[in-house]
Structures are given as structure tokens and as C-alpha cells.
Amino acid sequence: MASSTLHFIFFSALLLPFTLTTSTRDPCASDGSDDLSIIPVNAKCSPFAANPISGSVMDTVLHMASADSHRLTYLSSLVAGKLKPASVPIASANQLLHTGNYVVRASLGTPSQLMFMVLDISNDAVWVPCSGCSGCSTAATAASFAPKLSSTYSTVSCSTAQCTQARGLTCPSSSPSPPSICSFNQSYGGDSSFSASLVQDTLTLASDVVTGFSFGCINSASGKSLPQQGLMGLGRGPMSLISQTGSLYSGVFSYCLPSFRSFYFSGSLKLGLAGQPRSIRYTPLLSNPRRPSLYYVNLTGVSVGSVQVPLNLTYLTFDSNTGAGTIIDSGTVITRFVQPVYEAIRLEFRKQVKGPFSTMGAFDTCFAADNENVAPTITLHMTSLDLKLPMENTLIHSSAGTLACLSMAGIPQNPNAVLNVIANLQQQNLRILFDAPNSRIGIAHETCN
Ligand SMILES: *[C@@H]1O[C@H](CO)[C@@H](O)[C@H](O)[C@H]1NC(C)=O
Ligand SMILES: *[C@@H]1O[C@H](CO)[C@@H](O)[C@H](O)[C@H]1NC(C)=O
Ligand SMILES: *[C@@H]1O[C@H](CO)[C@@H](O)[C@H](O)[C@H]1NC(C)=O
Fold this sequence. Notes:
alpha+beta, protease, Peptidase_aspartic_dom_sf, aspartyl protease, disulfide bond, TAXi_C
């Protein structure tokens, strides 16, 4: 348990972003010490939003969702246990395909170096580009960690248990003296890979200081999907932030993702037991021993309005051998169902809304916004928890506002896909609590932006 002082500091840190957004000061201002905001990567407070977004929310979402297919391929590779360092063509790191959907401020080293890391709950580790990295982004918005400027930095030797835990690890079988530095290769995002050293330094999150935190220091990279300032993995594996901070945060965290419409505001990440909602409904968190980092829930059905959609449960049933089932993910933009499931939901939705229907990008059920008032509520049924999606999590509007689209989709071009993914658009303005020690996930409505 963290001390009560820490609890107090931490709690007030969590309230502060909410207070600030209602005052007249710049919502992006931060003194770097008390902010655990979750910032949409294209929003004003993100360093990656170079220009104010010129297009509409729809344009932004479609642009971001264009990377979903890579993300789904990546998630599928995770569930299939086929994760190995990918052989990928070296592409210019400046033509970034995708830099993640949300970023969080975190600092490494002493004195602390601020990084805007991509939040990824389906990945275990924390890793950042390190100075001198070859193949890492050279964009003006990229940043790397400079080990030489930190007095608390150290490397991790190959002979440690921690090195053994690092996924993809390869140490020389003969043990030289002194033992070599722990290094590992990893693939990420469906088209990228990197080579990193496992290192330790102080991690500062809001007012919390974690000494001797282990993370990957990227020395070389290829592909276009690596976050420009690093990744904060909140998966459940032994190297993850959650696993390394067990005594401080008890393995519990929650987030509230802001609406893509809220250009100025941000959501929040709450680490630890303090400040978590008391009134929240839970569904069991399922574990897949083959891929322990993913957060699986038991989706048992879907209702459109008052109609329970007839679904072939084969496509919903959790199976740790095949990886089939449903996960909650922070790196996919649009909720995706395996094709037969999506088609059944779409059929029922179209029955209840007046057509004609047209397609816009990933969305194939767009209709005159005038008919929006008849759009039915979609409910995701999970064990012990029915999640009625707010209408803003179900519909998205065209730039001109004349069309509304069902903001979900089937899994593109992959008839063998087995994984349903509950994604960002459907999670906005909900607090989702990940409680791995008690094997449960809580969901409550919350206006977080
Ligand atoms: C990582 O990949 C690079 C390039 O393929 C290779 O030279 C290196 O030996 C690999 N390192 C580890 C630790 O597997
Ligand atoms: C999921 O829910 C169904 C229906 O209630 C139940 O039969 C099944 O055992 C549950 N699966 C898991 C893995 O809990
Ligand atoms: C459900 O889908 C599986 C896999 O495609 C198929 O084998 C099975 O016959 C289907 N069940 C029903 C009731 O349609």
C-alpha cells in the first residue's frame, strides 16, 4: 500500500485536471508534476497535433481508423501466439502511419525528461526511443530519452530474472564476464519492429515517483507504427507498469477516454485504488494464458433497441486456444466484430432506421441524419453487465452533418479473424476500471471531457 500522504497527493492530482478545464486558464498548461491526463493524439494538448484539425471529427476518425487494420493484424498475431520480430521493410520514419490514439505525460530519469507516451493496454512494456536510435522518427514532434543526462540511469544485465521476463529475449548462451547488457527485439503495430536494451531509471507519473523502473530503450527501429515518444504498456505481463508498481497501485487502474469531438479537453488515467468510482458494475476479466496481456471480457450478446440480435455464439465464445473472444483495447479506433456478428447487428440496425444507406470510409451504414431520432440504442451484454452505449458512442456524423453513420464495423479483409475488439469510439465518456488482482473489469458512465 502507498502511504496515506501519497494517497492524498495522488488524489488531489487526479482532481486537478477536472478543475482546470472548467477555469479560464489554458487547459493544456501543465507544470509536469500533477497531470495524468489522457490526451487524444490529434487534440490541442497533444504535441502531435501540429495544426488545429482542419477537417471534421469524421475526417479525423476515418484517418485514425485507417490504421485499424494494422492494429487488428497485430492483435491477431498476439492471440495466435505468433509474435516474433517481424521482418519489415525499412520505411522513412517521417511518413508515420500511426502514432497511437491517446498520449499520457510521463517522465523518466533524474532530472526528469518529459515524454508523451502512447497509452496501450494491449501491450506489456514501457519503451522509449533512446538518443542515438537509428531508424526512430526524426519528426519535429519526436523525442528520445537521453540516458547520459540522467544520474539514476542503469542498464540491466542479461543474467537477471527481469531480463528473462522481457519478451523476445535472446541472451548469448555462453555467459561472458561481466554478463552482457539485456537486449531484446520486438515487433509492434503490425508493421514495425525495434531492438532495445532493457534499462532502469526513475519513472515519474503525476506526483508518484517509481525508482528503478525497468523499460526498453530503443536503439534501432524499422517500420512506421512506433510511437514517436514511446509507449506506456498497461497490459498484465510481468514487465508492465502495472506489474512493476504492485506495491504502489495494487494492480488497479482505470481510464476515461475523452470524446474525439473534444479538441481542447482530455480524459484521465487513474492508477491505484484511490479515487476509483465506488458505484460501478463489474464483469469478469478473462485470462488467456497464451496471451496474458490482453483484457478479455465475456461478450454474450448484443441488443439493438429492444431486439436481442440472433448471433452464432461460436463467434463470441472465449477460447484460450484460438484466442477467440472479445477484448477491450485502447489502440483500435472503431469497434470491430467478426464479420458474421457485425452483419447480424447491422441487419437489425438497418431494419429499425430508415434508409437508404451509404458508405463512408470504414462505415457502411450511413443514413440521413434527419432519421437519427429513430436510431436504436445498442447494448453490449457481458456477464453480469449490460453496457448501453450512449448515442454518441453509436453514431458518428459526416462533416456536413447531413449523414449519421453506425460507428462500428466488421473486421476487414480477414475471414479467419476470431477476435472482437471493443474500441475507442465505443469507450468514450465511460470509466473503465481494470482490476486484474480481482479478475474483473468495471464500467461506469462518466463525462470525462
Ligand atoms: C535483433 O535483430 C537484429 C536485426 O535482425 C539482430 O542483428 C540482433 O541480433 C537481434 N537482437 C536480438 C537480441 O535478438
Ligand atoms: C460466458 O457467458 C456464457 C453465458 O452466460 C457462459 O455460458 C460461459 O461459460 C461464459 N464464459 C466464460 C469464459 O466465463
Ligand atoms: C456457427 O458458426 C460455426 C462456424 O462457422 C458453424 O460451424 C456452425 O454451424 C454455426 N452454428 C449455427 C447454429 O449456425
